[in-house]
């Protein structure tokens, strides 16, 4: 009945799902369940079989479901939260652990006709993770097989300051050397972002440059505040080759994103949270950010003129961003770079603020424990993730163009049958 070409695959790899031996011209439901350790997420589609009793998700359009166009990855793009997960729960997967899925074929009478378990690796099994802990630097190196040197991406940590392996793992699966690190709220590092001197980030860049298997082609990657940090660091490191900033605010701001520099607090504009809107209990911050950045002065702005013209930029802005105004923000960044003679490409996409890795569940809102609010990021699930699929592929093209194409990763031994670990078996 069910057929999946690869039940064991990498996160960004597409899988082809089909079914045969069905009654002709009859409707069947395909249900995909993401067996997440804190609860189940799921998606579904209903498709009519053809005259031969076959269905192919590559070409067959759903009659109804969580997605609406023929798409081999439609079920993965549209997984949604169930009641097993609390309102505002954030699917973190900071350690980039594999995702386990169960695909079910269900009849019109709701009988389960067949089911197949699948596994998606965030980290290629042949990538080596090397923990770093020296001289106050804590991080993780993702090293592809072989001696190198490899083109390198530095994944800048985000608003929580700790080591997050999500982007690093998936980028490394493409053959890049990737490094990510902790900046605060980790071991003996400062507890708060406001106590961090931005020079710490430069120390990590210099550490990566010292690695014998790192090429001289290094890029910075950042999402949200990490994107702002990446843009700022480009003013200090002319040796960088490229920067990718995804929905990175155009400047730092007080009090939430105010670093120290040379021991003193940076000069930033004030963020007035009272200007944020509350819609059904969910905070939309766009108006507050527009206000803060409308007051930017030279002393509170990134010094774009100090950035080397050799550094290439890629900017992504989301049109349904609830945190910043994605379009305005992205165009301001582009204009600043063009005025100073830099080369820049942009993607304006139909998505919310949080664009992670391909086929990661979309988070339209999440509870922020630091600010104790339910924060909206925007974006409709399927459209957001379809845009994310495109954005990720464009990231890879950009990095290969400006860092060099890494050696193709060898295949790994794939399992033919997947068993679910006990910790992810659903209660449903």
Automatic annotation (TrEMBL):
Domain Acyl-CoA thioester hydrolase/bile acid-CoA amino acid N-acetyltransferase: 13-134
GO biological process, one term: acyl-CoA metabolic process
BAAT/Acyl-CoA thioester hydrolase C-terminal domain ranges (all copies): 196-404
Catalytic residues (positions): 224 (charge relay system), 321 (charge relay system), 353 (charge relay system)
Molecular function terms from GO: fatty acyl-CoA hydrolase activity
Pfam families cross-referenced by the UniProt entry: BAAT_C, Bile_Hydr_Trans
Organism: Caenorhabditis remanei
Family per similarity comment: Belongs to the C/M/P thioester hydrolase family.
Name the record gives this protein: Uncharacterized protein
């Amino acid at each position: 009945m069910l057929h999946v070409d690869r039940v064991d695959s990498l996160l960004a790899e597409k899988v082809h799902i089909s079914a045969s031996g069905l009654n002709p011209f009859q409707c069947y439901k395909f249900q995909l369940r993401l067996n997440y350790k804190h609860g189940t997420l799921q998606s579904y589609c209903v498709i009519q079989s053809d005259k031969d009793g076959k269905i192919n998700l590559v070409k067959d359009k759903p009659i109804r479901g969580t997605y609406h166009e023929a798409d081999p990855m439609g079920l993965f793009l549209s997984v949604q939260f169930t009641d097993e997960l609390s309102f505002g729960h954030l699917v973190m997967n900071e350690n980039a652990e594999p995702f386990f899925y169960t695909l079910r074929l269900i009849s019109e009478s709701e009988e389960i006709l067949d089911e197949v378990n699948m596994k998606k690796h965030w980290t290629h099994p042949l990538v080596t993770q090397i923990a770093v802990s020296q001289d106050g630097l804590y991080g993780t190196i993702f090293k592809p097989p072989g001696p190198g040197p490899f083109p390198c991406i530095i994944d800048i940590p985000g608003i929580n300051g700790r080591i997050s392996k999500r982007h690093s793992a998936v980028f490394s699966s493409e053959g890049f050397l990737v490094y990510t690190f902790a900046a605060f709220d980790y071991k003996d590092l400062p507890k708060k972002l406001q106590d961090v001197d931005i020079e710490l980030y430069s120390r990590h860049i210099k550490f990566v440059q010292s690695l014998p298997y790192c090429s001289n082609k290094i890029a910075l990657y950042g999402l949200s505040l990490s994107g702002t940090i990446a843009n700022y660091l480009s003013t200090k490191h002319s040796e960088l080759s490229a920067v990718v900033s995804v929905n990175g605010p155009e400047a730092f701001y007080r009090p939430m994103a105010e670093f120290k520099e040379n021991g003193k607090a940076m000069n930033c504009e004030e963020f007035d949270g009272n200007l944020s809107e509350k819609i059904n209990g969910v905070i939309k911050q766009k108006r507050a950010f527009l206000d803060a950045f409308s007051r930017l002065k030279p002393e509170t702005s990134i010094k774009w003129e100090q950035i080397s013209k050799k550094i290439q930029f890629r900017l992504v802005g989301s049109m349904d961003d609830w945190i910043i105004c994605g379009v305005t923000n992205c165009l301001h960044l582009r204009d600043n770079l063009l005025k100073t003679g830099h080369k820049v490409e942009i993607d304006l996409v139909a998505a919310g603020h949080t664009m992670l890795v391909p086929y990661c569940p979309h988070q339209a809102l999440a509870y922020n424990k630091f600010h104790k609010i339910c924060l909206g990021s925007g974006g409709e699930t399927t459209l957001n993730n379809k845009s994310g699929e495109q954005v990720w592929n464009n990231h890879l093209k950009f990095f290969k163009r400006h860092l060099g194409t890494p050696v193709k990763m060898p295949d790994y031994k794939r399992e033919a049958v997947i068993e679910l670990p006990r910790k992810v078996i659903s209660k449903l």
